[in-house]
Amino acid sequence: MAKMTKSQMLTAMAEATEMSKKDVESFLDKFVELAFSEVKGNGEFVIPGVGKLVKVNRKARMGRNPATGEEISIPAKTVVKFRVAKAAKDSLL
Fold first, then answer.
1. Is there a single domain that holds both residue 24 and residue 62?
2. Which residues contact 2 (CB under 8 A, 6 or more apart)?
3. 44, 46, 36: which is closest to 86 by C-alpha?
4. Total count of domains within the chain
């Protein structure tokens, strides 16, 4: 099964909610904007029943260049991870 594209998702949500596709797209854009600002400011954003986005600080570490085998230093950085909610995991079984 192929991945659902943004256009397909907007169409499906518009049909399910009886909203216009433009309104659904605007809502989705604002939702994503809110998620990013909350993760940046508070460190996490919870989507009830689905999971949460969490800001994680990675430590600096040593890695290896796969092409040459040479050891390289990987600097510390901040990344965003998604943790799936237990309800979402259970619904797939």
1. no
2. none
3. 46
4. 2
- Average pLDDT along the chain: 93
CATH number at residue 54: 4.10.520.10
Give 1's pLDDT tier (boundaries 50, 70, 90). low
Q: Is the backbone of residue 59 left (phi > 0), alpha (psi -120 to 50) or beta? A: beta
pLDDT for 36-53, tens place per residue?
999 999 999 999 999 999
Identify the domain containing residue 67 by its residue range: 43-93
User: Quick one: which of 68, 64, 66, 44 has its CA closest to 55?
Assistant: 44
Based on the domain organization, do 31 and 61 belong to the same domain?
no
Residues 50-82: tens digit of each pLDDT:
999 999 999 999 999 999 999 999 999 999 999
